[in-house]
Amino acid sequence: MAIAWIEIIIAVLLIGVILMQVRGSGTTLFGQADSAFRVRRGIERILFRATIVLAALFVIIAVLSVRLS
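Request: output the structure for the sequence above.
Response:
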């Protein structure tokens, strides 16, 4: 039961972090070509790393949830 709540909290945090990230102007379906090569600084770097950490935690918790049920 607790693992389900943890998974929900992580999912909500992940959605929030993704929505807070800066959107580049003129992006296409696949994003800008140079956006993958630019340097992230400040809050953008923190949000980028938080997205990776939260996504990894979400996958780990989801796998644990399936294994324990």
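The chain has one domain: 2-21+39-68.
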